[in-house]
Specification:
Elements: H1 2-26, E1 33-43, E2 50-51, E3 56-60, E4 63-73, E5 78-85, E6 88-94, E7 97-105, E8 108-113, E9 123-141, E10 146-148, E11 151-163, E12 168-177, E13 180-185, E14 188-194, E15 198-207
Antiparallel strand pairs: 1-4, 1-15, 2-3, 3-6, 4-5, 5-8, 6-7, 7-9, 8-9, 9-11, 10-13, 11-12, 12-15, 13-14
């Protein structure tokens, strides 16, 4: 009887140890690198302002492409992450007509907080705040030589990783980015356009 009890306790202890080890394998810890890759959708706000003293209404359309991030945890609960992507192309409606377009790259650096970092939670939410730099290029317009200046602005982020095993997971994230650009046509200043998009990304994550 005593041997049976001892055997049961040993088995239970080994099971608990294995469960704890499995749980800790999922934990985000200081020193981890996390990369995320997925489909990214840039959705500018509905009212992008007007140009030429209010005579030209501007509507910047949305676009979808491949996005990817690289993050590093310098603490169990805190990290930094850089968002990058393949170039996005946006059609631009002027007074309701498709008369212009532009491409842009939106690298965004955020400092992140992981409330469940250091634990074996399968769901790992995070939030971040940081700085965005948007570079516009390949501007085209039927009205003349269009130029959009680069933009600096604040960015906020919310995200969630669903851990599948020690390395792999599913990811969903959203950023709100302050993007304002000065616009000129044939060298003449037309005013400022506020893009201010939501960026949504869904895909996979990998921790190493």
């Amino acid at each position: 009887m005593r041997n049976h009890t001892l055997s049961t306790l040993v088995t239970a202890g080994l099971a608990a140890t294995a469960l704890l080890a499995s749980s800790q394998a999922l934990a985000y810890n200081q020193g981890d690198f996390i990369t995320r890759v997925g489909v990214a959708h840039v959705d500018p706000k509905s009212n992008n302002g007007s140009l030429a003293d209010g005579t030209i209404d501007v509507d910047v359309r949305s676009d979808t492409n491949l996005g990817f991030t690289l993050g590093y945890l310098f603490h169990d609960n805190f990290g930094v992450e850089l968002l990058a992507a393949l170039p996005f192309k946006h059609d631009i409606r002027l007074n309701g007509e498709d008369l212009a377009s532009t491409k842009h790259l939106p690298p965004t650096l955020t400092v992140q907080y992981y409330p469940l970092g250091g634990t074996g939670a399968q769901l790992q939410p995070y939030a971040g705040i940081g700085l965005n730099y948007t570079h516009f290029f390949s501007e085209k317009s039927e009205l003349g030589n269009l130029e959009l200046d680069s933009s600096w602005g604040l960015a906020g982020q919310l995200g969630l990783d669903v851990r599948l095993d020690d390395n792999w997971g599913l990811n969903a994230a959203a950023w709100y980015i302050d993007i304002d650009t000065d616009v000129s046509l044939d060298g003449n200043d037309l005013g400022k356009v506020s893009v201010d998009p939501w960026v949504f990304m869904a895909g996979i994550s990998y921790r190493f």
